[in-house]
Amino acid sequence: MTKRTTPMAGVVAIGSFFLLGCGATATGPDPLPEALSEPVPAPTVGLASLADSTAVLAGGCFWGVEAVFESVRGVLDVVSGYSGGTAATAHYPLVVAGVTDHAEVVQVRFDPGQISYAQILRIFFLVAHDPTQLNRQGPDIGEEYRSNIFFLNDAQHNAAAEYIEELERARTFARPIVTRLDPLEAFYPAEEEHQDFVRKNPDDPYVVRHDLPLLAKLRRTFPNLYEP
């Protein structure tokens, strides 16, 4: 059960029926744009000033990761988007075609008085995705679905690196963690149809199979932080 990252990817045959991957429709993904004359603008606020209250995380399809953090107490806002590539290629059809360096990410803005960056990391690793899957997450395959933390400053980098070491020492997972740590150069918001996707489409087959179980896991694993 895989989703191939080619321009015609997204529909996967299983026996006599089809299962849609992240972002796919019954007719396949949107065609590549004819022109990219209006690239997403780069951030105008200094990244360092956001570090105490912002995390940028990649853990597979951004729908489910976004839904998880939208249900966390102390999180103020979550936006799906792209990081790792350029403004000119921050467009969904290009990203899922595998022709950019972007990862599907979520920008999590939180209240540090209610939840810490360390707690954000715990939810990311233990609930939001499987950090041992290399360049994929479940049925979605490709570098755009990689496990990746885009740190905003040295403190975030060190916190993530130390937590990964802690998880490895404890043998929390059966396989090695493959999460990348990269400095955040820019965050580009995704198209409107990808924002709040799980909340807007709770009956979508992909959401039911892959994203709603993440919310159930969040409720079980961190009941004190779960906020529907």
Give the strand order, joined by hyphens, for the main sheet: 9-8-3-5-4-10
In helices, the fraction of residues equals: 25-40%
Number of H- or I-type helical stretches: 6
Largest sheet: 6 strands, mixed
Which percent band covers the strand fraction? 15-25%
| Counted beta strands | 10
Structural class: alpha+beta
- Secondary-structure element pattern, one letter each: EEEHEHEHEEEHEEHH
Q: What is the fold's blueprint, element by element?
A:
Layout: E1 11-14, E2 17-20, E3 54-59, H1 62-70, E4 75-83, H2 92-96, E5 103-110, H3 117-128, E6 136-137, E7 140-141, E8 147-151, H4 154-169, E9 180-183, E10 188-189, H5 197-200, H6 205-221
Parallel strand pairs: 8-9
Antiparallel strand pairs: 1-2, 3-5, 3-8, 4-5, 4-10, 6-7
